[in-house]
């Protein structure tokens, strides 16, 4: 301890000397050789003091410094020597103080060791006295042990007798246990049998329930498949009926159009033959009757289809009622099976509770018997344990006394050996610490140098890492900014797309609303035009009757003057015209067409309501040039067909008037007029009918209407048609009257623009196609001396009639 304290006291100066040595001698090997040489010189002198070692070491250091540093000045060396002498004196004084302190510490330790030795001697004497007392106690215990052994032998005899009784009781207990185990096994077997039977019944019932459930699922699947098949068949039948109805309607419309064309051609071919007029009118009546019959058949077919649809609906209701009844029966069966199962479970629970009660009673009896036997055994075992514990306590006390005596002797020898070892260890540690200090100083120098190098490397690495961290922070900030920009762009893009979708949706809604409004306005306009046309036709009918009456009066006047032979034709013709004027026939056909159109619209609405489809109104409004059915195209985008039929009838009347004019022109004699009766010459009548461009003249209460005025009035009523944006344009050529006519359904409207001045009445007008029509319109020649406003054409005849207009020339294809 004194050496360690001295070493600690001299640590700072020694370290200072070592540091100075490291400064004077940079080479570590040379420095180690100098230090070891100084230590060897100290050991050779036989002095183990620090002061000579320090002086010699300093001298050697100074010698080495003188060798290594020959360039140093004498002044520097003298200063170093004086400083080192002062340090040496300080070290010597400090070392002497430390030696005195170490000596005092060693004396204190010696006194403490002597006190411990005296205490150990006293303890040893006390232990000897205690051992003598324990020897006396052991003799007393030996006598007591012999007495206890005699008592123990007697007790062993009693214990053997008790063991025999215990063995007999254990045999009886084993028999009772076997009997209880057999009863328990029987109960377990019965419970297992009952459980197996219950599981079997449960599995059977589960199988039946699963079978019933499978049957129910299969029935449900079959019914669903059947319902789906019926729905599919019903949808197919609806589609087939709709297609058949539309095809039948188109076919009938085509037949009706063909019949109307045939009737018009027959009327035009037999106008000059008065005798065949009645036959043609009869044919027209028969055709009307056939059309009425066709309409009636269509209504009956529609009624039959409605009856079939109602029957299918009844069949579906019957199937649903049958399915519900079957489901209810299965639910009742399942309920009854569940009730029976609950009853069986209650019976089994009651039986099981009775068995549990019997088992618990027997277990209670066995537990009581076992308790009595266990109490007896515990009492006997307690007595045996008490005797064994008393004997073991005596043996333990004896062994404890022997152990304490041996421990005291071993402790005394161990203390002596430990003191000797401590003295030797102190001497060895003193030398080891000196060598260790020198080695540690050198190792510390090397470690400091390596640590400095590592510090430089770590600083460089730290600088690189800081640069990397700064670069990473910059990249991270750039990435965060880019991510924020991308987020803002994404949000802005989503908002732009949302606004664009909203605007497109609003535009689509506005277009659909505009289309709906346009369709409604077109329907209102067509309805207004239809009413206006009907009114104009009624007026024209009255005018036509007046013209016919005037013609008849003129013919009668001519016959009265003898200018014409007496014939029955005018009178009969007048009666036939008055009786069979086509206005009633037109009205009847118009009513039939309206009723048929209403029936078609009603059936279409019903079929769409059943199938859940909506009318493609937007597509029909936007795609005007698509091939739609003729009924829809004629009803939505063009005037009704009965208007065309009326125009055809007007043309027929015009041809009749031209034929009558020809007949009047062929009859000789002048025409005289008077205030009472109208007397007209045929040439005068012909010229008046052919050249009068003005409106009808009224004289003496009778109306006189020129054919051109009739055509102009009809044209003014119908008006020029609105042109389609994609319609081709025509110009006049003067080479001949031509007009473009489409042989298919086409909603395009064609405008004819005159290139020069408007032609006069009776001039030749011709047109030429400038750009092709999307319908591939053919060219068909017109009669001369006609200015075409618009024409109505019906298949297969290319033209049915032409109406003259005086202001401008238009053409419209309605085929």
From TrEMBL:
Biased composition (Basic and acidic residues): 190-213
InterPro entries: CCDC57 (IPR042481)
Coiled-coil regions, chain positions: 96-123, 284-397, 448-475, 523-550, 586-613
GO cellular component: centriolar satellite; centriole; spindle microtubule
Protein's name in the database: Coiled-coil domain-containing protein 57
Claim: Coiled coil is one of the keywords in the record: yes
Span list, region Disordered: 180-213, 664-706, 715-734
Keywords of the record: Coiled coil
GO process terms (BP): centriole replication; cilium assembly; microtubule nucleation; positive regulation of mitotic cell cycle
Keyword Amino-acid biosynthesis found: no
């Amino acid at each position: 301890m004194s050496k360690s304290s001295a070493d600690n006291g001299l640590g700072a100066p020694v370290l200072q000397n070592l540091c100075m040595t490291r400064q004077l001698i940079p080479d570590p090997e040379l420095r180690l050789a100098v230090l070891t040489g100084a230590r060897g010189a100290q050991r050779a002198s036989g002095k183990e003091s620090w002061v000579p070692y320090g002086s010699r070491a300093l001298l050697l250091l100074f010698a080495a410094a003188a060798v290594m540093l020959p360039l140093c000045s004498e002044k520097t060396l003298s200063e170093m020597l004086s400083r080192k002498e002062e340090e040496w004196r300080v070290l010597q004084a400090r070392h002497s103080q430390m030696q005195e302190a170490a000596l005092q510490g060693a004396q204190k330790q010696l006194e403490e060791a002597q006190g411990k030795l005296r205490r150990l001697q006293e303890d040893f004497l006390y232990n000897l006295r205690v051992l003598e007392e324990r020897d006396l106690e052991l003799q007393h215990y030996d006598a007591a042990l012999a007495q206890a052994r005699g008592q123990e032998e007697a007790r062993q005899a009693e214990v053997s007798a008790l063991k025999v009784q215990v063995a007999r009781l254990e045999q009886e207990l084993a028999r009772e246990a076997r009997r209880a185990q057999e009863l328990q096994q029987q109960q377990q077997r019965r419970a297992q049998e009952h459980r197996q039977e219950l599981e079997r019944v449960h599995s059977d019932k589960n199988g039946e329930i699963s079978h019933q459930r499978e049957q129910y699922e299969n029935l449900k699947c079959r019914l669903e498949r059947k319902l789906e098949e019926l729905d599919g068949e019903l949808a197919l039948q609806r589609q087939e009926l709709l297609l058949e109805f539309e095809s039948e309607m188109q076919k009938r419309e085509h037949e009706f159009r063909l019949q109307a064309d045939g009737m018009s051609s027959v009327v035009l071919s037999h106008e000059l033959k008065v005798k065949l007029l009645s036959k043609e009118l009869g044919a027209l009546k028969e055709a009307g009757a056939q059309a009425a019959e066709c309409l009636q058949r269509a209504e009956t077919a529609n009624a039959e289809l409605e009856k079939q649809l109602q029957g299918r609906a009844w069949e579906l209701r019957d199937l649903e009622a049958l399915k519900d009844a079957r489901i209810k029966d299965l639910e009742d069966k399942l309920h009854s099976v569940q009730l029976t199962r609950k009853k069986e479970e209650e019976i089994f629970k009651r039986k099981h509770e009775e068995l549990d009660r019997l088992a618990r009673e027997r277990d209670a009896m066995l537990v009581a018997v076992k308790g009595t036997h266990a109490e007896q055994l515990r009492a006997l075992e307690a007595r045996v344990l008490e005797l064994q514990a008393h004997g073991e306590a005596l043996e333990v006390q004896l062994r404890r006394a022997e152990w304490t005596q041996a421990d005291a002797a071993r402790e005394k020898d161990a203390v002596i050996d430990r003191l000797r070892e401590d003295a030797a260890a102190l001497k060895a540690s003193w030398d080891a610490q000196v060598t260790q200090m020198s080695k540690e100083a050198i190792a510390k120098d090397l470690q400091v140098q390596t640590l400095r190098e590592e510090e430089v490397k770590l600083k460089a690495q730290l600088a690189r890492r800081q640069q990397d961290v700064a670069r990473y922070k910059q990249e991270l900030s750039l990435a965060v900014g880019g991510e924020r920009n991308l987020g803002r762009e994404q949000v802005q893009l989503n908002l732009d797309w949302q606004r664009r979708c909203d605007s497109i949706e609003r535009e689509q809604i506005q277009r659909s609303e505009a289309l709906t409004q346009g369709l409604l306005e077109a329907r209102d306009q067509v309805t207004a035009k239809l009413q206006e046309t009907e009114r104009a036709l009624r007026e024209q009918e009255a005018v036509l009757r007046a013209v016919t009456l005037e013609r008849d009066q003129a013919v009668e006047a001519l016959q009265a003057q003898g200018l014409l032979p007496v014939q029955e034709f005018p009178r009969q013709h007048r009666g036939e015209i008055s009786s069979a004027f086509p206005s009633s026939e037109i009205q009847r056909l118009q009513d039939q067409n309206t009723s048929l159109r209403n029936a078609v619209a009603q059936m279409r609405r019903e079929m769409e309501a059943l199938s859940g489809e909506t009318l493609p109104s937007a597509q029909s409004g936007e795609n005007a040039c698509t091939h739609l059915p003729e009924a829809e195209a004629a009803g939505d985008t063009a005037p009704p067909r009965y208007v065309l039929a009326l125009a055809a009838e007007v043309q027929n009347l015009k041809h009749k008037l031209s034929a009558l004019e020809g007949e009047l022109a062929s009859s000789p004699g002048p025409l005289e007029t008077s205030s009472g009766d109208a007397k007209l010459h045929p040439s005068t009548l012909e010229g008046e009918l052919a050249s009068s461009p003005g409106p009808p003249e009224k004289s003496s209460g009778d109306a006189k209407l020129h054919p051109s005025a009739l055509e102009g009035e009809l044209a003014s009523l119908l008006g020029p048609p609105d042109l389609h944006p994609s319609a081709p344009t025509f110009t006049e050529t003067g080479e001949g009257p031509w007009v473009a006519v489409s042989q298919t359904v086409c909603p395009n409207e064609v405008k004819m623009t005159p290139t020069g001045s408007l032609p006069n009445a009776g001039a030749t007008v011709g047109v030429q196609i400038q750009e092709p029509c999307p319908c591939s319109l053919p060219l068909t020649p017109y009669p001369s001396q006609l200015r075409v406003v618009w024409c109505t054409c019906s298949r297969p005849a290319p033209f049915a009639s032409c109406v003259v207009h005086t202001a401008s020339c238009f053409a419209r294809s309605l085929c």
